[in-house]
Design goal:
alpha/beta
Length: 283
């Protein structure tokens, strides 16, 4: 059973995974090439732990335990050299993921599992860059990680049953439910989510309704917890565009990114993280 987890990437998903893993009792090393990103991640994680304890969401004393479980570094070799499980949460760029996996494969112990948190990309292609494809898998978390109950486990072509079983056990220790998916571009959730979001963007562009009314219709009419445009802003419009471009290249015309999405990204309107996307968060 995994005892040490290396989380690669200190952005929204990486820090959420590190928080959840540390709170579940794992020793966690969070790595990012940027010193500022690791500092920001530390401040976010410790702030969230303290706030959650104050509100009674986690037991008194759990915060200090979780903080003791966390270590931060800018060195990938340091992060993975003694790990049982690496979870890569870098940008959705295939060449970047492959580079991380090649280096982790060289430096991680022979028994270690290498997982990617990709929401769309091929774990088979990523695993092929390593000498341990049977120990490679996709472990897709959802944002915000500490609240969302699901982890999609996506088998690559060579992923072993033992690897999948270990990931199920780790997920369960984190308090998550799992679904097992055979690799296909977009898996289950991202494929559906990108289609719904893209159609909402096209409707906004066509003047069918306002962003507020499109989201309200989906929330109250279809019982979604968030509207598709709100969700795209939360995920980041640049991340959504990368996902759409990948699905478009793999699955064809119905995944062509809405022109308004590309336009907003070019303008720097990336959603919540930039202060403006389909909604203005500076007000």
């Amino acid at each position: 059973m995994s005892k040490h987890i290396a989380v690669i990437g200190g952005g929204t998903m990486g820090r959420g995974i590190a928080y959840t893993a540390a709170l579940a009792g794992f020793k966690v090393t969070l790595q990012d090439i940027s010193e500022q990103a690791t500092q920001n991640a530390r401040e976010y994680i410790e702030g969230l732990l303290n706030k959650s304890e104050e509100k009674g969401f986690i037991e008194v004393g759990k915060t200090s335990e979780a903080i003791e479980n966390l270590h931060y570094t800018t060195e990938l070799k340091e992060a993975v050299s003694n790990t049982d499980l690496m979870i890569e949460a870098a940008l959705e760029k295939m060449d970047l993921k492959i580079k991380i996996f090649q280096q982790a494969d060289e430096w991680a112990p022979a028994h270690a599992i290498l997982a990617t948190n990709t929401s769309t990309m091929s774990p088979t292609e990523i695993a092929a860059a390593t000498k341990r494809p049977e120990q490679c898998v996709a472990m897709h978390f959802f944002n915000p990680v500490h609240r969302m109950k699901l982890i999609e486990i996506i088998r690559g072509l060579d992923t072993s049953d033992e690897t999948v079983e270990t990931i199920k056990q780790v997920s369960e220790q984190m308090g998550k439910e799992t679904v097992e998916v055979n690799e296909f571009p977009g898996f289950v959730t991202s494929r559906m989510n990108c289609l719904i979001g893209n159609e909402a963007m096209n409707m906004l562009m066509e003047g069918v309704a306002s962003a507020e009314d499109i989201d309200k219709a989906i929330k109250l009419g279809l019982n979604h917890p968030m509207g598709p445009l709100e969700l795209a802003d939360l995920v980041g419009l640049d991340s959504r565009l990368r996902n759409m471009e990948y699905l478009y290249s793999q699955l064809g015309e119905k995944y062509r990114p809405a022109p308004i999405l590309a336009k907003y990204v070019k303008a720097g309107r990336l959603g919540r993280k930039s202060g403006r996307g389909f909604y203005d968060y500076n007000k």
